[in-house]
Amino acid sequence: MAKTKTTFYCQNCGTQHAKWLGKCTNCNEWGTIVEEVVSKEPQKGWASSDKKKRQRPMPIQEIEANEQDRIVTSNGELNRVLGGGIVKGSLLLLGGEPGIGKSTLSLQVALTIPKRVLYVSGEESQEQIKMRAERLQQTNANCLVITETNTQTIFKHIEECQPELVVIDSVQTLHTDHIESFPGSISQIRETTAEFIKFAKFTNTPVILIGHITKEGTIAGPKILEHMVDVVLQFEGDRNHVYRILRAHKNRFGATSEIGIYEMLSEGLREVENPSEILISQKDGEMSGTTIAATLEGVRPLMIEVQALVSTAVYGTPQRSTTGYNAKRLNMILAVLEKRAGFRLGTKDVFLNIAGGIQVDDPAIDLAVVAAILSSNEDTFVLQDYCFAGEVGLTGEVRPVNRVEQRILEAEKLGFQKIFISKFCKIAPRKSTIEVVKIGKVEDILTYLF
Ligand SMILES: [Zn+2]
Out of 5, 9, 425, 434, which could bridge 186 as a Cys pair, Cβ 3.0 to 4.6 Å? Predict the structure, then answer.
């Protein structure tokens, strides 16, 4: 009989505590600490068959470095985010909110890859998965489907059918015999993931692990998983919007700056190859409060529409609300406009919205935010063929942004007539159809706009 031992885990952040506490000392959440039974029995799982090839220390110049062996999927956006495809023997964690499309993306990959795939679902029956595959209008004789949650049984299936890629939907449903706590608990998630890591490394088979995300945006409880796996992909977007962004938060085999963009259709996720065109809404005529920002996501230029609504506050405290833009940054910009440019925005409600349900972190969007707020405040439109790329500093200065030439090229390609950038940007003169306007202070923008 195995000795049992219990540990206290915070179900929100995964921190281990020596005793029960009302409030987690790490993430400050109340009532999240749960006692879990952890077996003291030595771990078996995949490790039992693991007869390690012993390595010996080698001089670095004698080590042969081969390009990572990758499985190139038929999904161009996914390949781009991964840096060229799925690396063999890697463990890939695909996170996102429930219902965002993680299962759809994984099933699409499983159905279109020219490899033998085992798709393990703990959430859907084989019939449900079949129905989903039919909706995606894809079929693949090499895609095997099973509903199972016990890792030891899953490994038995794997041994029988020898897949070249394993998809697990989702890590929260898995449980291992070696731990007594319930599926989805921190110790189960940690242990089952560890078993799959051993399996992936030992057999050189890549594993895609789907993980649901809590409302705080961490990969369900276990932030710990992020340290264990090779690649962490996050599927972002608003369930109510059609666009989804796939972002690498961690990638041991490539950069984390690339993003993939998808459109959610009834027949599955469509890759969006030219995102700028879709992020700018189609509208009749000119409207105040909307501007276009020339942003970059990774190394990919994106023209994004910014919408602002400034109106007199009805109640005592003015409201500030943002979607897709940092709320604190909005307050900073409003303070700069008030203090440096003399706009009385303190008594106004300000609403800011980034089109397409996209979260933008690129500071180059600041200047477009300023222009949108001023445009709504003055109730005067900004010409549709103007765009902006500049960061706003605390003294109201417009600061240069990285890769400004690439942004200008993208704006030119899409037919914009004017781009506003910082006067401190150094760009080589060249012939182009777009006029580059250089400004030093936020208030300078007024002379050009209205
Ligand atoms: Zn916690």
Answer: 9
